[in-house]
Design brief:
The chain is mainly beta. The protein is built from five helices and 36 strands.
């Protein structure tokens, strides 16, 4: 439902008659927005997993004739603690790919791509030797930022790194020549016969990353990314669409060393505008910082998607809150809630949800309550999502992506909903029934900043006819009155 808050947001003119024709009024230059064109400066991948036989395969493409410097970062599902990041340097029109795959006790990134990274991944070499058959780069995920002195009272085992989400930030672009040996970054990263000239020299530059900012330009909307979840054991793949954010930082480069925790969502324009369409109407909201701007773009009061279960069908929804840790984990520009993991369920930052189920013939169950969710806790009267990347399984307690290893129910990011009231297949509307204090009144928008998808898998026992698919969530915006 839409309220009068629309009048408080600046509405863009749709069209005005001029000399018998129509003229569109342009939006303000460089307002941050969710890209409709599939390119951007920031890419949010809503999920990665190595559970239940899955690998997560991804690509990032530099679509411009400039040298691009980017940061890629993986965050675990429970509390968004970083488990690995590094810098990637893409020469003009370069493409980089890799996969997150399981290790004995956790997960790792593996790539056969020859583009330069900093630091260079294990197995990489500095010159054309990388062209040798089987050469690859790899690096394991770590629990360093949620264990020991960085512990958050959640589980500290490596099992926690097996799922989460990840993000890419374009830090800068260089127009300098790739054939001039004096331009070490651009010259060394440039591919010759399919291999960069000298990744070692490029890597060494990031010992003084601030110096790179003196000769590269600000980011631009040039990154294109893809991903899919691959399960070779049952012969299925599930495509997932990343979210591309345009015009995140257009004023200056934001190049940091690979050992730095920046850039992150706080590194965008300090005073920016969020541009989005709602019911075909352009809406412009002003924000004081880039975290608020991104949150405004992703705010939704409800999420809609389909489910199919029974027989060979299985459905899981992923709901990821990519800005949540800036509000809840004691970092970022906004006053935080208490730390995410404390003794007892009330210490967590949990978001109450409701759900209405429909079958395919108009039947419905309204206000799904805690008794229809598993694991069931009789001491909790509401249903909540308490983590950063959450999975809702339909009519099963295992689901497409398995169940995390932590035995404490308060540390699990899983819910399983029973749809027997309407049947095995249909659609559902999940509603955020309360807006947390830190986001209340965020540009007058209700709900939570959320991204994700619904995944379906059909496995008949015959690998030749198994298949997987995904559907982006449909989002409904809500407004304060």
């Amino acid at each position: 439902m839409k309220f009068d808050i629309r009048k408080k947001l600046v509405t863009l003119a749709v069209a005005s008659a001029v000399s018998g024709g129509a003229m569109l009024m342009a939006a303000p230059a460089q307002a941050m927005n969710v890209s409709q064109n599939g390119v951007g400066e920031v890419v949010l991948f809503p999920y990665y997993t190595v559970r239940n036989g899955f690998d997560t395969v991804f690509t990032v493409t530099n679509t411009t004739d400039k040298t691009a410097i980017l940061k890629i970062r993986w965050r675990e599902a429970l509390n968004s603690r970083e488990v690995r990041d590094f810098n990637v340097i893409l020469s003009p029109y370069d493409h980089w790919s890799g996969a997150v795959t399981a290790t004995t006790d956790g997960a790792m990134v593996r790539t056969y791509d020859k583009s330069c990274t900093s630091p260079m991944l294990t197995g990489m070499t500095t010159t054309a030797a990388r062209a040798a058959a089987g050469a690859k780069g790899e690096v394991a995920f770590t629990n360093a930022l949620f264990s020991g002195s960085f512990g958050d009272n959640g589980p500290a085992t490596m099992d926690r790194v097996k799922e989460g989400y990840f993000e890419v930030f374009l830090m800068g672009l260089s127009s300098r020549s790739t054939s001039d040996t004096a331009n070490v970054l651009e010259y060394g990263a440039k591919h010759v016969n399919g291999v960069p000239r000298d990744c070692g020299a490029v890597d060494a530059l990031f010992l003084n990353a601030s110096a790179i900012n003196s000769y590269v330009g600000a980011p631009d909307n040039v990154l294109k990314a893809t991903m899919f979840l691959l399960n070779t054991s049952n012969g299925t793949a599930i495509d997932v669409k990343p979210t591309h954010i345009e015009d995140f930082q257009n004023t200056a480069p934001i190049v940091f060393s690979p050992s730095d925790l920046y850039p992150d969502m706080t590194s965008g324009e300090t005073s920016s505008q969020a541009l989005f369409l709602d019911d075909g109407q352009g809406m412009l909201a002003t924000a004081a910082n880039s975290v608020t701007t991104v949150s405004s773009l992703l705010m939704a009061s409800s999420v809609i998607n389909e489910f199919a279960t029974g027989g060979v069908a299985n459905t899981s929804w992923v709901l990821t809150f990519p800005t949540k840790h800036h509000y809840t984990d004691g970092v970022g520009p906004i006053a935080p809630f208490s730390e995410r993991f404390q003794t007892g369920s009330n210490g967590q930052s949990c978001d109450t949800i409701g759900m209405t189920l429909y079958n395919r013939e108009e039947g419905q169950v309204i206000s799904v309550d805690n008794t229809q969710f598993s694991p069931y806790n009789p001491d909790i009267t509401t249903v909540s999502l308490c983590h950063e990347a959450n999975v809702i399984d339909f009519n099963t307690t295992t689901g497409l992506f398995g169940v995390p290893g932590a035995s404490n129910v308060n540390h699990r990011n899983r819910l399983s909903v029973d749809t027997s009231g309407v049947g095995a297949a249909g659609w559902a509307s999940l509603t955020f029934t309360e807006t947390p204090a830190a986001t209340t009144g965020l540009n007058g928008l209700l709900g939570l900043p959320v991204i994700g998808f619904g995944a379906q898998l059909r496995t008949s026992g015959d690998l030749t006819v198994n298949y997987g698919s995904s559907t982006e969530h449909t989002y409904v915006r809500g407004y304060n009155d």
